[in-house]
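Residues and backbone
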Amino acid sequence: MSTSNSPKIDNFPNVTVDFQRKENIACLTLSNPKSLNAMTWHMYELLSEYLDEIREDSTIRVVVLRGDGEKAFAAGTDIKQFEGFTADDGVAYEQRIDHVTRKLLELNKPTIAAVHGYAIGGGLVLAAACDLRYATVQARFGAPIARTLGNCLSIRNYRRLTGLIGEPRVKELIFTTRLMGAEEAAAVGLVNAIFDESEFFEQVDQIATQMATRAPLTLWATKVALARLQDEQPLPEFEDVIGKIYGSADFQEGVRAHIEKRSPNWSGA
């Protein structure tokens, strides 16, 4: 694949989303190597901008989303950014995530999440918004937010995850904070297939290449139909809950504990 010159953040020179393409396949690589590809605000913005470009580029037929390095797809959102967050900041943050995931969901061409390592928190949400998910044996999925920050997901992401793996499993993963292995993820339908690590990206590339030869309007119509079926029921109000969570003392304690490298002391307030 040809390498592009992706924009970077001045004070985070190694943090970016890299956009490469091979013929009619686009590859977006989440890259924050020092933090297991945890997403920064800038990375979310770049991802959003690239998805806009890809939507308008009729020569691109398939998109592959992956993580940089060997350890992670994406390990959530970079927690350092949450210092000083207010209730309004929390609502705006979840709206930002919804905005990006909806672009993935509504993209007019199929998307593949190539999960190599951890896909947790925001990483799980991004993978779940892709049309297909392939994983290595070492891949791990989950949302351990009840152990780390004491925050929550948006109601759209709760609904999407419930649709993929069922309500009892979503509750169990979040309540216990355990991570789901690749084999379990495949067994419950979250992952389409597991490939050996040594040939993982080659296998994903073969699938993307095959998909790129198929009728694009058929693929698009299928995406639209299934998205409309999932969105058939209107979503209830949830911003009051998000505001309470991100405006809580517990959330601030979770952020401080992460920065100070200790376990949080939850108060329930």
